[in-house]
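In response to reviewer comment 3 from the previous cycle, which asked for concrete evidence that the modeling workflow produces usable outputs, we include below a single protein chain processed end to end. The sequence was submitted unchanged, and the resulting structure tokens are shown without manual editing.
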Amino acid sequence: MFDKFNREITYLRISVTDRCNLRCTYCMPECGVEAMSHDKVIRFEEIVEVVKAAVSIGISKFRITGGEPLVRKGIVSLVKMINEIPGVKELVMTTNGILLEKYAEELAAAGMGRVNVSLDTIDPEEYRKITRVGSLDQVFKGLQAAEKHGLTPIKLNCVIQHSSDEKHAQGVREFAREKGYAVQFIRQMNLEAGEFSVVEGGHGGDCPNCNRLRLTADGLIHPCLFSDKGYDVRKLGPEEALIQAIENKPETGSCNVSGKFYNIGG
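The workflow returned the following structure tokens.
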């Protein structure tokens, strides 16, 4: 299905939770945030219905995000459910990698294609500083497990301040080169101020060619990360919510004063 700017919408990002086991400085406060109540969080069965509706209008790529998706109880079951839907051609996940060693084998068996892993530095002290609570060693073990079980090609997501020439970004670039991973550099964004740029090595932020929608953990379809518009799949039904989101997808991002990175899936 095409939007009014003749962009074909083929990609849905699915945020399964607003919870995370890290506290990255650019994403949430050190004390964390008030978690969404369980009754508001979209159920797996509802997600499956959204995916079926999405496939029916031409969407074929799906990415599971969070928060941190691997903290959602039963996440492997959801992967299997989505993978079994006819018309799903690509199923991937973005994760911080902390729990990837534990789940890589099960994810692969359930039908997960590959993973993107967030990695802003390969310096253990700097990693701890950025994430406040994270262990870089756990991420490395998760990457090894992902390779072992075929969740490839692996792509690293590296947040930068201004340029991929920054010291820690260069460390991630070299690490990716040594391991045979792809890497994309994402300039730190500001939702409320509408500050974003095209992702280096990826497709995000490229408004003229944007092909994606977002499903948040509270059941809203968002046509754009930098927009406050959201269409409730529970009130409208999955297909109508998707259609309205596509029909109202803006030509370019502006700002988002109602969402946060931890609950909209980045």
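The chain has one domain: 11-264. We consider this sufficient to address the reviewer's concern, and the full set will be provided in the supplementary archive.
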